[in-house]
Amino acid sequence: MPHKTVIVGGGAGGLGAAGGVKAANPEAEVVVYTEFEDVAYSPCGIPYVHGKEISDFEKLFLATKEQYVKAGIDVHYETTVTAIDPKGKTVTVEGEGRVSYDTLILATGFDYADPGVPGGDLENLYYVKNIRKAMEWDKVLDSVKTAVVIEASPLGTEMTTSLAHRGIETHLVDPNPWPLAEMADPDIMAPVEESWTEMGVKAHFNTTLKGFLGQGKVSAVDTSDGEIPCDLVVVATHKVPNARLAADAGLKIGSTGGIIVDERMATSAPGVFAVGDCTEIPHGLTRVPLQGLTGSHAYAQGKAGGNNAGGGSRTYKAVYVPWGTPAGKWVIGGASFGETTATALGIPYVVGQAQGISRARYYPGVKPVKVKLLAEPGSLRLIGAQMVGQEGIKERADFLAMAVKFGFTFHDLAAMENVYSPAIGALNEPIVVAATNGLDELRKAGKL
Amino acid sequence: MPHKTVIVGGGAGGLGAAGGVKAANPEAEVVVYTEFEDVAYSPCGIPYVHGKEISDFEKLFLATKEQYVKAGIDVHYETTVTAIDPKGKTVTVEGEGRVSYDTLILATGFDYADPGVPGGDLENLYYVKNIRKAMEWDKVLDSVKTAVVIEASPLGTEMTTSLAHRGIETHLVDPNPWPLAEMADPDIMAPVEESWTEMGVKAHFNTTLKGFLGQGKVSAVDTSDGEIPCDLVVVATHKVPNARLAADAGLKIGSTGGIIVDERMATSAPGVFAVGDCTEIPHGLTRVPLQGLTGSHAYAQGKAGGNNAGGGSRTYKAVYVPWGTPAGKWVIGGASFGETTATALGIPYVVGQAQGISRARYYPGVKPVKVKLLAEPGSLRLIGAQMVGQEGIKERADFLAMAVKFGFTFHDLAAMENVYSPAIGALNEPIVVAATNGLDELRKAGKL
Ligand SMILES: Cc1cc2nc3c(=O)[nH]c(=O)nc-3n(C[C@H](O)[C@H](O)[C@H](O)COP(=O)(O)OP(=O)(O)OC[C@H]3O[C@@H](n4cnc5c(N)ncnc54)[C@H](O)[C@@H]3O)c2cc1C
Ligand SMILES: Cc1cc2nc3c(=O)[nH]c(=O)nc-3n(C[C@H](O)[C@H](O)[C@H](O)COP(=O)(O)OP(=O)(O)OC[C@H]3O[C@@H](n4cnc5c(N)ncnc54)[C@H](O)[C@@H]3O)c2cc1C
């Protein structure tokens, strides 16, 4: 049967969705709209090209425009959708008028939160997102001596590290007492802060942004800590869902501002799905809705939602949020939440932690790995984990998210077998030691 | 109450046990006997010193003799126990006579299987184990031009890689059609074989050892493939349990030749425990007893058995055997078993596999990661996994062993969230892709 799916958005969510529709129904007509000049590039690589860890932007493109044509995915570039009409099953497209669909997928992604201070219209305020713009900004960076990064968000953390790595004097301004305070605990971030200092970063925590100063071009950032002269500002405020089209059409929006979806990624409007950063998804343990997840989540949601929009049947469930990123000279990561979030949510927990190593103590390249595990008192089921180290953080984060999801206890993790091979792993796996230490603490306290 | 535990063996099992006794009962008298000059060194590092990845042997020592004295662990070096008497609660010690104990722990480890061919008494046949001997052999290696490694066992695989890395012309002789055939599948080993060829290794598979030739010193190895002239032979035959003391005393010995123990690591004789490579432990899925596990298993068994011998209460359960090691220019690993073993045991399975990557496709240092998952038909519960790649193999192997233990299905693994951060992980986690591919195959075959 003829079937047409319209997708608004060409990011990880939108392209995952396009693939999902085609997987369920290879005959389906799939039209993707994006405001950008490209799809199928990795925005996640941009900070690393700026930091010169990656040599050039061309490397970030995943597929050519022809490959999409071949795959039967009709991408309309630099084309804005201005409204959706779920009743009439149409979208209004700039330059195309009303376009009809059988199923619609919203993958409109995120915006950086408006800093909400004077001077927002000055030049040299850089919002990192579009790759063509990033290519232009990269040339600007060549003449930048001092930059200010606004907020130690995940992107702010990456950009601070990258700009410092590039040799730019970098200031980081954040209202919280430590970086990434909304997800990571202070003990996890302490080594990162130290390494930033070694790299010449000037961190301004507990510092409120008051405005951007300058004539035409930004020349300083005004903060509660005083003025910081600079040539460029990276505005890495936290992400907010771009759910405007959905809200205007009366779709249900959640408490975070994200579009509410069910396990099929279906919105409150029949035939309309939403995927990626424009949605909100419940946390697996707390059921608290989360917005602003990652590109990896957006892609997976896209595949599930796309499949359903194409007539298939896939579910996407609550999330346990493994995360990880390089930060300063370290790699940080975790799953679910840490102590700060647990405390803020009023969730009681016990802790097991260990300072371990990534290879045999004597093997060249061995690095420290700190693991902190949070468990529910009594049951000792894992409810969260945080780490700082180097090698193997991403793989451990993936595992620990599954451990939270499947309710592994400190006992399960303390009894876990592990590979010991000098070049790749230590006699004692840090996760096992952390769980064992957690049990020992409880025993000493007479609670086990 | 006064309590004395005697431990026979100063390897990973014996020292884990000494710590376990002290943890349960800090007042206990702990006496350790070892035939060697040292305890508390890592034999696992020896191949890498020979290969010059690690600069010197001193690095492999973990603790000084004084530290054991301080910890109240009385180690008798170069001292052989010649018999045990579980009824009389004594051991017979060379040079000390009968020594009594309250509890006894056997941690006598493994021997390399006797190659069982003529010429076994020639010089320059190297059995890698004792660190003092390894230090002497390392000097010999300086003048070795050609070496032959007997058997592509885990140690043989490491030694082949190390000797080639050191620049020695290395021959590998093995009766099976591919290396590590008892644990790894041929598709996993194919890249390893290729990389060995690049490193100048001459592999002789399907080749039977017939004898060692020479006058006083070995000068050639005689095989079904002809004579291989050489200056040195590394005898890396598979491990066999060293259970002689136990067998002589009438303790129950299992089908593999290992001492039979229960979940407390208790043997058939009251008050006598056994830990490490002298025991056999059931596989968690098949219940088939396994011998010759790893140093990591020996250490964990030691801690459990030692704790029980000291009056505590710990269990050590059936194993799911995560494993991993560098091999040639690759890292291989897995959990539970692969296709070869499953087929040999008559265990039906379905496969999901993927050729993935370790970082973003465009990030410097990205490496391929092949993941192969085996699941039980119908339930699709994971029963084994094998991998070849570089980064993150050890962490994935640890995770996959837990996935087997806890019965994760292809569905669970396909729905797994994963960290995407260009420098540390790809958009698609290879384990997730392997499980997804497995499901797709089943769907195509109409079996899902
Ligand atoms: C610099 C940077 C680094 C990142 N690093 C990582 C990382 O390391 N790991 C990770 O997992 N994720 C990373 N991300 C991903 C990111 O955080 C998001 O999670 C991800 O981009 C969400 O994907 P999405 O498809 O939902 O939305 P977006 O990527 O925001 O895409 C939205 C799309 O919708 C289009 N659009 C919006 N409104 C309209 C309209 N009205 N009409 C037409 N088109 C419209 C846009 O043109 C765009 O194509 C990074 C992103 C950036 C920008
Ligand atoms: C070269 C090499 C590389 C290895 N690499 C790895 C690796 O990468 N990863 C890993 O996990 N494991 C590795 N191992 C560990 C190994 O494979 C075993 O699993 C481990 O050594 C078993 O420990 P164990 O304490 O049970 O026995 P063993 O290490 O064999 O120790 C046996 C001890 O018993 C003593 N003993 C035996 N009989 C008597 C007696 N009659 N009287 C007194 N003392 C006695 C010996 O002196 C010795 O101290 C390696 C081992 C070697 C030798």
Keywords:
homodimer; alpha/beta; FAD/NAD(P)-binding domain; Enolase-like, domain 1; 3 domains; binds flavin-adenine dinucleotide
Number of domains of chain A: 3
Radius of gyration from the alpha-carbon trace of chain A, in angstroms:
23 Å
Mean pLDDT of chain A: 97
According to CATH, the homologous superfamily of the largest domain in chain A is FAD/NAD(P)-binding domain
- Tell me the helix content of chain A: 25-40%
The CATH topology of the largest domain in chain A comes to FAD/NAD(P)-binding domain
The counted number of beta strands of chain A is 26
Number of helices, counting only DSSP H or I runs of 4 residues or more of chain A: 12
**Beta content of chain A:** 25-35%
Q: Using the coordinates above, name the CATH class of the largest domain in chain A.
A: Alpha Beta
Annotated CATH architecture of the largest domain in chain A? 3-Layer(bba) Sandwich
Bound molecules: flavin-adenine dinucleotide
Strand arrangement across the biggest beta sheet of chain A: 3-2-1-7-19
**N- and C-termini, Cα separation of chain A:** 62 Å
Quick one: overall form of chain A? globular
Largest interface: A-B, 61 and 61 residues
Looking at how many chains there are and whether they match, the oligomeric state comes to homodimer
Pfam families (chains A, B): Pyr_redox_2 (PF07992), Pyr_redox_dim (PF02852)
Family (chains A, B): Belongs to the class-III pyridine nucleotide-disulfide oxidoreductase family.
Protein name (chains A, B): NADH oxidase (H2O2-forming)
Domain FAD/NAD(P)-binding (chains A, B): 4-282
